[in-house]
Amino acid sequence: MNHLYKRDLTKGSIAGSMLRFALPLMLGNLLQQCYNIADTLIVGQVLGAEALAAVGSSYALIVFITSIFIGLCMGCSAVLSMQYGAKDIRQMKQSIFSSLLIVGGTTLLLNILSLAFLSPIIKILQTPPELEAITYQYLFLIFLGMIPMAVYNFYAFLLRSVGNSSSPLYFLLISVALNIVLDVLFMVGLKMGVEGAALATVISQIVSAAGIYLYTWKQFPELRLSRDDRQINFSAIRKIASFSYLTCMQQSVMNLGILMVQGLVNSFGTTVMASFAAAVKIDSFAYMPVQDFGNAFSTFIAQNFGAQREDRICRGIRCAWLTTTLFAGIVSVLVFFFATELMRIFIPATEQEIISIGVTYLQIEGSFYIGIGYLFLFYGYFRAVSRPSVSLILTIISLGTRVILAYSLAAIPSLSYNGIWWSVPIGWILADIAGVLFYRRLHVL
């Protein structure tokens, strides 16, 4: 078992353990965001504002759909991390099989439903009529790649649960590089339009899914399931389901709120849609490291919770809060003062109205990245100590506030779509306050 345990997060330097584990997560997400940026850049510069608006508005729906099985994988990973920290490998392997049943069945059902009801979903999002056809073409191909995307995420979270965050990074690097090459080939060389962007994404997802599966099978024989492990264990399924579906609901609620806000943004027309499409990519890129650090923090807490290492958990919490405060503060300053330059990466300098709208968005949200950083720590902590329902409650507070305020403030003529931007940090702050109260009341160690 030495191959597994050398990634044990219950030993060694606390700050070093979290940061070494978090770094590959950050780099992986950085690669993914770089691809998203490259995709947006190519679509915006080569295909024009309408294609950018269609792909950008599709992004929120794609994130919502994929967040369901990513939430399932995340919840499964929390249980696996606890069992790994407790050195209960036999139970862990039974949990892996139960996780496969839950994630696989849910993903297949989700794939069928999303393809069957794609047209009405596009209309519900208030997509402008002139963009409906191009949006359908893009999303139909993207959703054909849902199963390989789920396979990659399942094995990535499996490896991370035992402390291996590096291997998923390598396969993501291959996927992103291939995706960008195919984007250029299909959209610039073969003039395939948004269908080319979608096809490039699906092909790269298939490659990364096949690669990480074969790697895990060959390099981690300890994780292979025997016939005894592949028995349906309803007790194990209930335990996994209690975590995974609550985490799934948290991720889904989070992205459902974003999806509802996307529908409101769409109602303001193509200019605001294009601006939002570019600005939200910058926004996601900016706070991505604190999100990944929150996930690393969650794995660290889960392993130490399983090992009953209260001392490391308490010191880990202090370290995580300090790190998040420092990093989020620096990023806020950079985004606020360089918002115009960042928007010009995606939008031609002649499109002054689109750039101006995006700058306002970035300067409002960019001033409050500490709020979202703290919220990711709360999500990770409560998920890791067997309280995923609290993470769900915090998400409902954050996104519920955001949606209600977005629709209310946007109706005020003097605020218009700027009211949508202001609703986001207000939701973060309220959820953070609730997180502090829950932590003091439900501190389990």
From TrEMBL:
This is Multidrug-efflux transporter. CDD domains: MATE_yoeA_like. It comes from the Bacteria. It comes from Parabacteroides absconsus. It is a multi-pass membrane protein. Signal peptide: none annotated. It is found in: Cell membrane. Coiled coil: none annotated.
